Amino acid sequence: MVAKRTATDGAARPGGSATHGYQHRKPGYLASKDDHLKRLRRIEGQVRGLQRLVENDTYCIDVLTQVSAATKALEAFAIGLLDEHLSHCVAEALSRGGAEADEKVREASAAIARLVRS
Description:
The chain is mostly helical. Helix content is 68%, strand content 5%. It has one domain (32-117): Metal-sensitive repressor, helix protomer (Methane Monooxygenase Hydroxylase, Chain G, domain 1). Strands 1-2 form a two-stranded antiparallel sheet. A hairpin with a 6-residue loop joins strand 1 and strand 2. Helix 1 packs antiparallel against helix 2 (60-96) and helix 2 (60-96) packs antiparallel against helix 3 (98-117).
């Protein structure tokens, strides 16, 4: 079970989602959710294919080639999701200003840093 935090106390509540201290509105990817789910299912298929390659004792370089393809697919998904987050969630928070805007910028910067390091 995931905990939900409130903006006032930061405490976790059962049944919610991680919110980093603020209540979330609709996610920025909502308009393209179906496309994202299709893309993730394709990536899932790629990863299952990797498992089959290993089960079938496929040559290491061939497995690594497929690992690279799955990794690139996940990276492309992450970049697209980040773009939507910036143009929707962060932009919306910036238009309202205040502490939430500052938090959204910090959150986005941290996400970008994680992507760059990965």
